[in-house]
């Protein structure tokens, strides 16, 4: 088995105290490790220095998906037994696929209530992977009720309560549907976004609704046997046109986050080029991989042995990536969703 196909190849030691539990304030005060993917050179900066690394004619492509407050705490209507729901995806109007704890309490026909009765749910069936299919009952729009009583579905490694739900949204989040935030975008502020066009740097948006599969560990020793999760994406015509125009004029297309990267590379894989499109992607990027669209990547620091660190290794080179991670640990960078940034050019 080649080294790059072994899951253990992507392991590294991370002290628990470096897992960021809360976001920094302001957003742009996070640190930013910059990695030259050709030479492996590493320099240390802050996110508010971002513009000094960008050139007129560059294009930043961002994921404008908005996180659904998809975690609900409630009780069984029959006897008040506690339950936790995590909404995964809609199947039809007010019918959703969910996972719940404790699942054994959620048999078909069981009803639950949330938010002092503002929302009720009936379990319709069990799913193949242990989840549930449920129908919700509420007055008016379900999304509005979720926004009122739902909690942000923070990753399992974040144990502190989030006091401001908007801190787990990017400032440009618009399209509701993600189960987790596209976290590379959390560092942007309105001021940085406003400064980009003044320097001749363009922005464009794609939508990829991040699923909880992004946190699913790779269990196969040979990563080629890993079953990748499927996520829905869309690329508007304006974005496709901007990408093609940027390429033709010699600018760089820089993906803000692995989700934007997977959207663009997945679209090229599906259609042979960047075009206005929407669909589902299960693209799994790991070394060696020839990137068809992006020239740069802005991302956070990812879990050991995760599909995300494998993607970064494919883009920056395995040796450069692991050296950067070792450096980030020794320099006490903050890791994962609320952690610091990494710019790879």
Helix-strand blueprint:
Elements: E1 31-35, E2 42-46, E3 59-63, E4 65-67, E5 71-76, E6 82-92, E7 95-101, E8 111-114, E9 119-126, E10 132-137, H1 142-149, E11 175-178, H2 190-198, E12 202-208, E13 231-235, H3 237-248, E14 253-256, H4 258-271, E15 277-281, E16 296-300, H5 307-316, H6 318-330, E17 341-344
Parallel strand pairs: 1-17, 3-12, 3-14, 4-11, 14-16
Antiparallel strand pairs: 1-2, 5-6, 5-8, 6-7, 7-10, 8-9, 9-10, 12-13, 13-15, 16-17
What does it look like?
- The protein is of the alpha/beta class and about 350 residues long.
- The chain folds into two domains: about 5-65 and about 165-345, QueA-like (3-Layer(aba) Sandwich); about 70-150, Thrombin, subunit H (Beta Barrel), CATH 2.40.10.240.
- Helix content is about 20%, strand content about 25%.
- It has six helices and 17 strands.
- The protein has helices at about 140-150, 190-200, 235-250, 260-270, 305-315, 320-330, and strands at about 30-35, 40-45, 60-65, 65, 70-75, 80-90, 95-100, 110-115, 120-125, 130-135, 175-180, 200-210, 230-235, 255, 275-280, 295-300, 340-345.
- The strands form three sheets. A nine-stranded mixed sheet has the order 2-1-17-16-14-3-12-13-15, covered by helices on one side. The chain has a six-stranded antiparallel β-barrel with strand order 5-6-7-10-9-8.
- Helix 5 (about 305-315) crosses helix 6.
- The protein is globular and about 65 Å long.
- The model has no long low-confidence stretch (mean pLDDT about 95).
